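Support request, please re-run this one:
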Amino acid sequence: MRRLFLIRHAKTEPSVGRDDYERRLTGRGRDDGKRVAKALAARRMLPDVLIHSGAARAKETAEIFAAAWQGKVELQEDAGLYDASVTTLLARTRALADEHKRVGLVGHNPSLGELATALIGSGAEPEMRRLAAKYPTGAVAVLDFSIERWDDVERNAALLALYLTPAEPEADAD
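Re-run finished. Output below.
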Protein backbone atom coordinates (compact mmCIF):
# COMPACT_ATOMS: atom_id res chain seq x y z
CA MET A 1 0.00 0.00 0.00
CA ARG A 2 1.05 3.59 -0.68
CA ARG A 3 -0.34 6.65 1.08
CA LEU A 4 -0.23 10.12 -0.49
CA PHE A 5 -0.87 13.29 1.51
CA LEU A 6 -1.87 16.24 -0.67
CA ILE A 7 -1.37 19.35 1.47
CA ARG A 8 -2.29 22.79 0.20
CA HIS A 9 -0.13 25.51 1.74
CA ALA A 10 -1.76 27.44 4.58
CA LYS A 11 -3.25 30.96 4.39
CA THR A 12 -0.88 33.56 2.92
CA GLU A 13 -0.26 37.25 2.60
CA PRO A 14 -2.04 39.02 -0.28
CA SER A 15 -0.18 38.91 -3.58
CA VAL A 16 -0.50 42.65 -4.22
CA GLY A 17 2.96 44.15 -4.73
CA ARG A 18 4.76 40.90 -3.88
CA ASP A 19 6.58 38.25 -5.85
CA ASP A 20 4.20 35.26 -5.72
CA TYR A 21 7.01 32.80 -4.99
CA GLU A 22 8.05 34.80 -1.91
CA ARG A 23 4.60 35.16 -0.29
CA ARG A 24 4.66 34.01 3.33
CA LEU A 25 2.04 32.63 5.68
CA THR A 26 -0.11 34.89 7.81
CA GLY A 27 -0.50 34.37 11.56
CA ARG A 28 -3.76 32.58 10.87
CA GLY A 29 -2.01 30.40 8.29
CA ARG A 30 0.67 29.39 10.79
CA ASP A 31 -2.00 28.59 13.42
CA ASP A 32 -4.07 26.61 10.90
CA GLY A 33 -1.00 24.63 9.84
CA LYS A 34 -0.21 23.69 13.44
CA ARG A 35 -3.79 22.60 14.12
CA VAL A 36 -4.06 20.43 11.01
CA ALA A 37 -0.61 18.88 11.62
CA LYS A 38 -1.59 18.02 15.21
CA ALA A 39 -4.87 16.52 14.00
CA LEU A 40 -2.97 14.24 11.60
CA ALA A 41 -0.56 13.24 14.37
CA ALA A 42 -3.48 12.45 16.69
CA ARG A 43 -4.75 10.06 14.00
CA ARG A 44 -1.25 8.61 13.57
CA MET A 45 -1.35 9.67 9.93
CA LEU A 46 2.18 10.86 9.19
CA PRO A 47 4.19 10.70 6.00
CA ASP A 48 7.79 9.52 5.84
CA VAL A 49 8.74 12.55 3.75
CA LEU A 50 7.20 15.95 2.96
CA ILE A 51 8.09 17.39 -0.43
CA HIS A 52 7.34 21.10 -0.91
CA SER A 53 7.49 23.34 -3.96
CA GLY A 54 10.14 25.67 -2.59
CA ALA A 55 7.77 28.66 -2.62
CA ALA A 56 8.01 30.42 0.74
CA ARG A 57 4.42 29.57 1.76
CA ALA A 58 4.75 25.88 0.86
CA LYS A 59 8.14 25.57 2.54
CA GLU A 60 6.85 27.28 5.69
CA THR A 61 3.78 25.01 5.76
CA ALA A 62 6.00 21.92 5.43
CA GLU A 63 8.28 23.17 8.22
CA ILE A 64 5.29 23.78 10.52
CA PHE A 65 3.99 20.26 9.88
CA ALA A 66 7.42 18.70 10.43
CA ALA A 67 7.91 20.66 13.68
CA ALA A 68 4.51 19.50 14.97
CA TRP A 69 5.57 15.92 14.22
CA GLN A 70 8.82 16.39 16.18
CA GLY A 71 11.26 15.55 13.42
CA LYS A 72 9.60 12.29 12.41
CA VAL A 73 9.47 13.35 8.78
CA GLU A 74 12.11 14.25 6.21
CA LEU A 75 11.75 17.52 4.28
CA GLN A 76 12.60 17.79 0.58
CA GLU A 77 12.15 20.47 -2.05
CA ASP A 78 10.95 19.94 -5.61
CA ALA A 79 10.69 23.23 -7.51
CA GLY A 80 8.73 21.37 -10.18
CA LEU A 81 5.70 21.34 -7.86
CA TYR A 82 5.38 25.13 -8.14
CA ASP A 83 2.86 26.25 -10.75
CA ALA A 84 2.64 22.64 -11.96
CA SER A 85 -0.20 21.23 -14.05
CA VAL A 86 -2.17 18.19 -12.95
CA THR A 87 -0.29 16.17 -15.57
CA THR A 88 3.04 17.28 -14.08
CA LEU A 89 1.91 16.51 -10.52
CA LEU A 90 0.75 13.06 -11.59
CA ALA A 91 4.12 12.42 -13.27
CA ARG A 92 5.94 13.63 -10.14
CA THR A 93 3.78 11.31 -8.01
CA ARG A 94 4.58 8.35 -10.23
CA ALA A 95 8.30 9.21 -9.99
CA LEU A 96 8.37 9.20 -6.16
CA ALA A 97 11.03 7.01 -4.55
CA ASP A 98 9.58 3.60 -3.71
CA GLU A 99 11.56 3.54 -0.47
CA HIS A 100 8.93 5.95 0.93
CA LYS A 101 5.51 4.35 1.35
CA ARG A 102 3.90 7.50 2.82
CA VAL A 103 4.65 10.78 1.03
CA GLY A 104 3.27 14.28 1.46
CA LEU A 105 3.26 16.86 -1.33
CA VAL A 106 2.91 20.46 -0.14
CA GLY A 107 1.79 22.60 -3.01
CA HIS A 108 -0.69 24.92 -4.63
CA ASN A 109 -4.14 25.16 -6.15
CA PRO A 110 -5.74 24.74 -8.52
CA SER A 111 -3.59 21.75 -9.55
CA LEU A 112 -3.28 20.12 -6.10
CA GLY A 113 -7.05 19.97 -5.61
CA GLU A 114 -7.49 18.85 -9.20
CA LEU A 115 -4.96 16.06 -8.66
CA ALA A 116 -6.85 14.86 -5.58
CA THR A 117 -10.11 14.82 -7.54
CA ALA A 118 -8.48 12.98 -10.44
CA LEU A 119 -6.93 10.28 -8.26
CA ILE A 120 -9.84 9.50 -5.94
CA GLY A 121 -11.96 6.55 -7.01
CA SER A 122 -13.64 5.68 -3.73
CA GLY A 123 -14.30 6.90 -0.23
CA ALA A 124 -17.09 8.45 1.78
CA GLU A 125 -19.39 10.24 -0.68
CA PRO A 126 -19.91 13.36 1.47
CA GLU A 127 -16.15 13.81 1.83
CA MET A 128 -15.51 13.29 -1.88
CA ARG A 129 -18.18 15.87 -2.76
CA ARG A 130 -16.78 18.34 -0.22
CA LEU A 131 -13.26 17.96 -1.61
CA ALA A 132 -14.44 18.36 -5.21
CA ALA A 133 -16.32 21.54 -4.26
CA LYS A 134 -13.51 23.26 -2.36
CA TYR A 135 -9.84 22.68 -1.53
CA PRO A 136 -9.05 25.62 0.77
CA THR A 137 -5.69 26.75 2.10
CA GLY A 138 -4.42 24.33 4.74
CA ALA A 139 -6.54 21.43 3.44
CA VAL A 140 -5.16 17.88 3.45
CA ALA A 141 -6.40 14.90 1.47
CA VAL A 142 -4.99 11.52 2.46
CA LEU A 143 -5.19 9.03 -0.40
CA ASP A 144 -4.53 5.30 -0.12
CA PHE A 145 -3.46 3.21 -3.11
CA SER A 146 -3.38 -0.61 -3.22
CA ILE A 147 -0.09 -0.67 -5.13
CA GLU A 148 3.52 -1.66 -4.49
CA ARG A 149 5.23 1.06 -6.54
CA TRP A 150 4.47 4.74 -7.03
CA ASP A 151 4.82 4.25 -10.77
CA ASP A 152 1.54 2.29 -10.62
CA VAL A 153 -0.55 5.29 -9.48
CA GLU A 154 -3.60 5.65 -11.74
CA ARG A 155 -6.49 8.08 -11.97
CA ASN A 156 -9.63 7.05 -10.04
CA ALA A 157 -7.65 4.40 -8.13
CA ALA A 158 -7.25 5.97 -4.67
CA LEU A 159 -9.38 5.59 -1.58
CA LEU A 160 -9.97 8.92 0.15
CA ALA A 161 -8.91 7.98 3.69
CA LEU A 162 -9.29 11.52 5.10
CA TYR A 163 -10.14 15.02 3.98
CA LEU A 164 -9.40 17.67 6.58
CA THR A 165 -9.58 21.46 6.45
CA PRO A 166 -8.54 23.99 9.10
CA ALA A 167 -12.18 25.10 9.56
CA GLU A 168 -13.29 21.71 10.88
CA PRO A 169 -13.62 21.02 14.61
CA GLU A 170 -11.64 17.81 14.06
CA ALA A 171 -8.61 19.94 13.22
CA ASP A 172 -8.58 20.95 16.90
CA ALA A 173 -7.94 17.34 18.00
CA ASP A 174 -5.10 17.02 20.48
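The chain has one domain: 2-11+23-172. Residues 27-42 form the longest helix (16 residues).
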